[in-house]
Each structure stands twice: as C-alpha cells, then as structure tokens.
Design brief:
alpha+beta, Outer Surface Protein A, domain 3, three-stranded antiparallel β-sheet
C-alpha cells in the first residue's frame, strides 16, 4: 500500500452534513437532503454507517466488520470498500477534514 493510500485509509470518515439517517422499524434509511434521494440500508450497511457516525476510519471499520459478521478480513475489506465507494459516489460521506466525496 502506498503512503497516500495509508493516509486515506487512516483518515476518519463522517456523514456529509446534508445527510440524515432515520430508523424505520428494524431498518435504517439515509436521506440526502440536497437530492431528496432515499437509501435503504441492509443490516451490514447499517452497521457500517453506525461506525462512520462513530468516527472510525476504513481500516477500523473493516476490522469491526470482520469481528461482528464472522467473515474473513479479505471479505470484510472488499465489502467495506464497495459500500464506501457507493457512499462516496452519492456524496453521503465526507473525510473528517470536511472534504465531501
């Protein structure tokens, strides 16, 4: 892993300011207030969102997913990166320095 990748992985993530989360029964939805898009989260995505809200970085999120969902670290890394890429593409998360993805 290169130095820029290490810095990116170590940087805490946070929800974008224009995104709200709402629990509906057993599920969670995210609402992008800029686009009015609604995203329904499954159990794994909901847990990853909770870890983002808690201020964890990518590596810590992957570690928690490995522990909590009984998957290999490779599977967790793949799933976390996939979901974070989706969150970034929809501008649902920002780096802790304030830059929106």
């Amino acid at each position: 892993m290169s130095d820029p990748e290490l810095r990116t992985n170590a940087r805490p993530l946070r929800p974008s300011a224009h995104v709200v989360a709402q629990q509906l029964g057993a599920g969670t939805v995210l609402i992008n207030l800029q686009t009015n898009q609604i995203y329904e989260l499954n159990r794994t995505a909901r847990r990853i969102w909770e870890l983002i809200v808690a201020g964890l970085d990518r590596a810590a999120i992957s570690e928690r997913v490995t522990e909590e969902f009984d998957v290999t670290s490779e599977e967790a890394d793949r799933e976390v990166e996939h979901l974070l890429a989706l969150f970034e593409a929809e501008r649902l998360i920002a780096d802790d320095d304030g830059s929106s993805h």
